[in-house]
């Protein structure tokens, strides 16, 4: 009988070693908001008005990759805008070497106010919608967004200066 108990315990122990505990998802490295960027790892903010080189360097370190492209659009209504874009959907906008705005389509980067790209319209906080030449837009506390063509989810979020043509 004792051997049977020992064997049962050994089998149970071996089986328990095969069970994995689900890991908590990694927290986002930053949160975008109406004033700029709040890194998760620091209380220091990256607000609008900061120098372009420092902002790009800081965000590149946070995302563990540099931007895929840095371009300048001289035909923006607000004046020439230089944009640093990451492949996942984040774009930072600069004018005269200063951080002035962002756009985001990356669902892994949260936006203050309870928004996230690709978030279902039904899961969004209370907002009012307006149909414009861009599509169905919304705003809350100086954070703006655009729904997908079928109005089912968030396609794009932004704050500050952008280069949209309406």
Q: How many helical elements?
A: 2
β-strand amount? 25-35%
Mean pLDDT: 90
Structure class: alpha+beta
N-to-C series of helices and strands: HEEEHEEEEEEEE
The main sheet comes to: 8 strands, antiparallel
Radius of gyration (Å): 22 Å
Strand line-up of the largest beta sheet: 4-5-6-7-11-10-9-8
End-to-end separation in angstroms reads 82 Å
The multimeric state of the shown protein is: single chain
Helix content: 10-25%
Number of strands: 11
Flag low-confidence runs. Answer: none
Overall 3D geometry? globular
How would you explain this protein's 3D organization?
There is one protein chain. With 166 residues, the chain is of the alpha+beta class. The chain is built from two helices and eleven strands, in the order αβββαββββββββ. The chain is globular, with a radius of gyration of 22 Å. The N and C termini lie far apart (82 Å).
Please sum up the structure shown.
This protein has 166 residues and is of the alpha+beta class. 17% of the residues lie in helices and 34% in strands. The mean pLDDT is 90.
């Amino acid at each position: 009988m004792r051997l049977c108990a020992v064997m049962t315990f050994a089998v149970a122990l071996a089986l328990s070693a095969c069970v994995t505990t689900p890991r908590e998802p990694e927290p986002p490295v930053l949160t975008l908001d109406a004033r700029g960027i709040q890194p998760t790892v620091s209380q220091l903010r990256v607000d609008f008005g900061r120098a372009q080189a420092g902002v790009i360097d800081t965000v590149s370190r946070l995302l563990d990759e540099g931007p895929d492209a840095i371009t300048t659009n001289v035909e923006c209504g607000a004046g020439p805008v230089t944009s640093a874009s990451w492949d996942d959907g984040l774009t930072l906008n600069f004018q005269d070497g200063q951080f002035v705005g962002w756009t985001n389509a990356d669902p892994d980067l949260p936006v203050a106010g309870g928004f996230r790209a690709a978030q279902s319209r039904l899961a969004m906080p209370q907002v009012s919608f307006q149909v414009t030449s861009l599509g169905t837009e919304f705003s809350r506390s100086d954070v703006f967004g655009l729904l997908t063509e079928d109005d089912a989810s968030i396609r794009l979020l932004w704050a500050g200066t952008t280069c949209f043509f309406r």
